[in-house]
Amino acid sequence: MISIRNPLLLLLMLHEAIQYHDGIYGPGLHPKEVVMPARYFFVNITSIVGQKYTSKLNNDFAVEIEGTSAKTHYCRIWVNKLNRKDGTFIVRYKVYETCNDLSISLYYKSKHIGGSPFTFKGPILPDQCYCPEKNFDKWFKQYDCPKSYDKVTHDLELYGKVNMKTQLKKIIHRFHKPESTSFCHYVVKNNKIYRNCYGKHVGFNMFADNILLFLARKVVLPDIELIINLGDWPLVRKGTEPLPIFSWCGSDETVDILMPTYDITESTVENMGRVTLDTLSVQGSIERDWSERESKAIWRGRDSRIERLKLVDIARANPDLFNVSLTNFFFFRDKEQDYGPKQPHISFFKFFDYKYQVNVDGTVAAYRLPYLLAGGGMVLKQDSPYFEHFYGLLQPWKHYVPVARDLSDLTKRVKWALANDNEARTIAENARKFANNNLLPQHIICYHAVLFSEWSKRIDSEITVDDGMTHVPQTPFTCDCKTDQRREDHQEL
């Protein structure tokens, strides 16, 4: 909570508090309660100062975030200001050690705005701290998580009370094919993570490890048992016995329980770390306003589906409408002479030098869609039997322009956009709003937490750690939790 020590000052700031509430918002303004790798909040600078957006605002608006620590007196904090070039800014900051207090100052032309500075009493914890909140419901409210999601309810409705010992045996019998499928059996017991993996290619277990470890550092998870599919293809076909396998991608022919993809999950738990592509960075790394963008549809990618070769054919026939190239040949190496030469990768952010972005399936759903939606361009999305956890909320002609599975109407759709620029821009703006309402780090964290919590209520068998299971430890990191509700020890034992 924001701490204002002087009651008279509080009364004087009531009007500015409304400005703060309207123009400055986001989970990063609750740094004690909401612990993330990178905390973030939004500042609508044009609303606060009452001016239209110009590029000069970027220099006129400044952010300063400071704190103190027990060790060095000066808390190490990295601050990142992202200009969305529409009068709003995203402010991200990463805390590298426990801060005793924190101060956020926002300036316009060197003067405080919107009730700034905002001060917070600690401990303000870095992401690495193992200081889980004991009360799960309290943590849910702190992170502003919904009680459930329609997709979670839908995916779990096939299951009543589940005996995981029996289900695990059935899953191993049906799906343990080391050359083609890989999956891990996870157990969370007393907030510690254990797993046993099956299959030849299990390297992707690091993504499942990371989200479970991340959540366990923040809140004491319910004891839970689950099987996570490490491949892109969903496994449990409709018409067969519904076995509880958690997957990153769904399809019209399967009933796997969906999690957010490993890609968007990794961008959440590694935000402002080794991962640079995320739904926040995309919005702050775009150089051109809509009116300055080239009126073409762009696409880059590898040859992982026949429609991608067809996309090249369409682009070659309509060079005034498309900028399309393949960046690698693997599935259709015999076609490289016809569809090459392969072109070098370009920065994902350069996609938004163009008004329109084409989204075509790869081996399954193209996991780049969240970032395309966040980028403020008009997305041309191929009709697909594959989907991610959020697809059910998307509406054609509101959030994206639909394209036939065989791409037969793609050229027609681009010509429509050219002839209806205002409508195309509105769709692009709706897409970004959708991403901000559903696909930011806070939303991905909440979806996992709700899903695991709801699943834990269906397990009817005793949850035990089997002999031979691998303990997945937290990375040691010294912290001082110092709160009545959290554990006093500094590391997971």
TrEMBL record:
- Annotated function: Protein O-glucosyltransferase. Catalyzes the reaction that attaches glucose through an O-glycosidic linkage to a conserved serine residue found in the consensus sequence C-X-S-X-[PA]-C in epidermal growth factor-like repeats. Regulates Notch signaling by glucosylating Notch in the ER, glucosylation is required for the correct folding and cleavage of Notch.
Instruction: Tell me what this protein is called.
Output: Protein O-glucosyltransferase 2-like
* Family the UniProt entry places it in: Belongs to the KDELC family.
Any one GO MF annotation of this record: glucosyltransferase activity
Q: What is its main location?
A: endoplasmic reticulum
Where is it localised?
A: Endoplasmic reticulum lumen
PANTHER family annotated for this entry? GLYCOSYL TRANSFERASE CAP10 DOMAIN-CONTAINING PROTEIN, KDEL LYS-ASP-GLU-LEU CONTAINING - RELATED
Q: Which residues form the Glycosyl transferase CAP10 domain?
A: 220-462
GO CC terms in record: endoplasmic reticulum lumen
Output the superkingdom of the source species: Eukaryota
Alphabetically ordered keywords of this record: Endoplasmic reticulum, Glycoprotein, Glycosyltransferase, Signal, Transferase
Q: In which pathway does it act?
A: Protein modification
Which residue positions does the secretion signal occupy? 1-23
A single Pfam family it belongs to is Filamin
Q: Does the keyword Transport apply?
A: no
> Positions of the Filamin repeats?
24-122
Its recorded reaction(s) are: L-seryl-[EGF-like domain protein] + UDP-alpha-D-xylose = 3-O-(beta-D-xylosyl)-L-seryl-[EGF-like domain protein] + UDP + H(+); L-seryl-[EGF-like domain protein] + UDP-alpha-D-glucose = 3-O-(beta-D-glucosyl)-L-seryl-[EGF-like domain protein] + UDP + H(+)
